[in-house]
Amino acid sequence: MPLTVWLTTETSLPIAAISETPVAAFAACLLVGAAVAVVVWWVVQALTTEELTQDTEWRYDVTRINELRRHDMLYRIFQPLMTPLAKLNRAAFRGRLPEIDREIQAAGLSRFWLPEEYLARTQIVALLLLPAYLYLCISMLEDVLLAAFSALLLSAFTAWMLRRRLSSIARRRLMMIKRRMPYLLDLLTLLMQAGSSFLHALKQSVAEFHGHPVAAEFGRVLTDMNMGKARGEAFDAMRRRLADDEIGSIVGAILQGEELGTPLADVFRTQADVLRLKRSQRAETLAAEAGVNMLLPGILVMMACVIVILGPFVLNYLQSGLF
């Protein structure tokens, strides 16, 4: 039997469709290869592109972009895509950008990030995960439209979760700073009472708490003062950077004590005691809330115990009666 007749009778496919299948597969392979080549070329260009150069007039945005390209690989690769997304975010989320900027500073991220650019970074991560979500949804759902819609929802949820993760990191870091700040203030007090100057005592305290967020924040205060800022301006920049009520009150008391001429050692000792008192009050509040929070689990455990004890008797009664 000829091959064409056997293919037609056995597979019930037209000869034209059979002859066009290798052509379609070859075209698909070409498209995939071209897409991979474009991606590889884009990545290589992004990695080998030199830093932006300053013009005759120095511009901060050029330095900022160079620093972001140096420290964040995702920004370096997707900068052409991140720029229009940042403009779109600036128009769409104008009211939320100050809060995002505060959380970026409180989370200890690079100060070169703009809030709209950080939002664009989370959106790009979500878009990169979209093909995986699409493959997963198509493999689990039969309806292609429903699978595509589900993948889009998962991608949007990923962007939202990355945004919430920033808030969580900022809150956790602020809590770590408030827990360790009394000890740093105590160390400053001891060093200054021993005869050290404020700058030398602050430098030693930052070195003692190296690697902790409180050391990073006071290290930035020390850097600002070494660059020529006044002591009050450096502490005020820290207060605006963290934007926390407790830390803001501590820094405000330090600035007020400096204006009134109060010795800084006494101010630091007083504020360390205030922080410890607030920490104790916060612990008492959490302990008082623990009883209320354990009420519902306790009721559920008690109901489970009642069911375990009385369940066999109830089943026996339903099956064979009372006696």
What does this entry show, briefly?
The chain is mostly helical. Helix content is 83%, strand content 0%.
Number of helices: 14
The backbone outline, from C-alpha atoms, is flat
Provide the residue-averaged pLDDT: 82
Number of DSSP strands? 0
Give the percentage of residues in beta strands.
under 5%
Low-confidence stretches: 1-19
Kindly, what is the distance between the CA atoms of the first and last residues, rounded to a whole number of angstroms? 82 Å
What order do the helices and strands follow?
Answer: HHHHHHHHHHHHHH
Structure overview:
This protein has 323 residues and is an all-alpha fold. Among the domains are: 1-48; 178-279, no CATH class. 83% of the residues lie in helices and 0% in strands. It has helices at residues 3-11, 15-48, 60-71, 73-77, 79-92, 97-106, 115-140, 144-193, 198-208, 213-226, 231-242, 245-260, 264-293, 295-320. α9 (198-208) packs antiparallel against α10 (213-226) and α10 runs antiparallel to α11 (231-242). The N and C termini lie far apart (82 Å).
Q: Main attributes?
A:
mainly alpha
List the helices and strands and how they pair.
Layout: H1 3-11, H2 15-48, H3 60-71, H4 73-77, H5 79-92, H6 97-106, H7 115-140, H8 144-193, H9 198-208, H10 213-226, H11 231-242, H12 245-260, H13 264-293, H14 295-320
Helix pairs in contact: 5-7, 6-8, 7-8, 8-9, 8-13, 9-10, 10-11, 11-12, 12-13
